[in-house]
Amino acid sequence: MDGTIGMEPRIETIAAKKLVGLHRDMSLVENETGVLWRQFMPRRAEITNRTTSDFLSMQVYRGQPETVFSPDTVFTKWAAVEVSDHNSIPDGMEPYLLRGGLYAVFPHRGPAASAPQIMRFIFGEWLPNANHVLDGREHFEVLPADYNPMDPDAREEICIPVRPR
């Protein structure tokens, strides 16, 4: 498998977060993540009330959690940052309130191209055997300021919403 992932995630409660960013509807078959980030990154400095230097790549799914992983399922993908408030939103960007809650947090090291293998591990191996089930909240990845999706040593945290089984 390209990239590395810890076999057991941290299970933690993540607080609600105020976000500002751009979003697009897409599916895995018609994945426009690169387009979204190429639109967002040149404008990131317009967001003046950031609380961290991290970026969030977030997926908001419609419908039941068990339908999330069909390659044709349409979801809303966000390129965003955490902010202190929603009082200063650059033109063309939008606010979002990430609800927070219980998450399985998987530290990952590897290029973005390794995402399909990582997701197969999380949803095909870890989740069916875990003491938790998927919850119908936002999925997101925390990307450090220097994140490079092509870097074989890129680091990120993959946050999967869960609840006790």
What does this structure look like?
The protein contains two helices and ten strands, in the order βββαββββαβββ. Helix content is 14%, strand content 39%. Strands 1, 2, 3, 4, 5, 6, 7, 8, 9 and 10 form a ten-stranded antiparallel β-sheet that branches. The mean pLDDT is 89. The radius of gyration is 15 Å and the shape is globular. The chain has one domain: Alpha-Beta Barrel (Multidrug-efflux Transporter 1 Regulator Bmrr, Chain A), CATH 3.20.80. With 165 residues, the protein is mainly beta.
Strand content: 35-45%
How can the largest sheet be summarized?
Answer: 10 strands, antiparallel
Number of helices: 2
Q: What is the H level of CATH, i.e. the homologous superfamily?
A: Regulatory factor, effector binding domain
Q: Report the radius of gyration as a whole number of Å.
A: 15 Å
How many independent structural domains?
1
Number of strands: 10
CATH architecture descriptor text = Alpha-Beta Barrel
SSE string, helix = H, strand = E? EEEHEEEEHEEE
| Basic shape | globular
Low-confidence stretches: none
User: Gap between N and C termini, in Å?
Assistant: 28 Å
Percentage of residues in helical conformation: 10-25%
CATH class: Alpha Beta
What structural class do the secondary elements suggest?
mainly beta
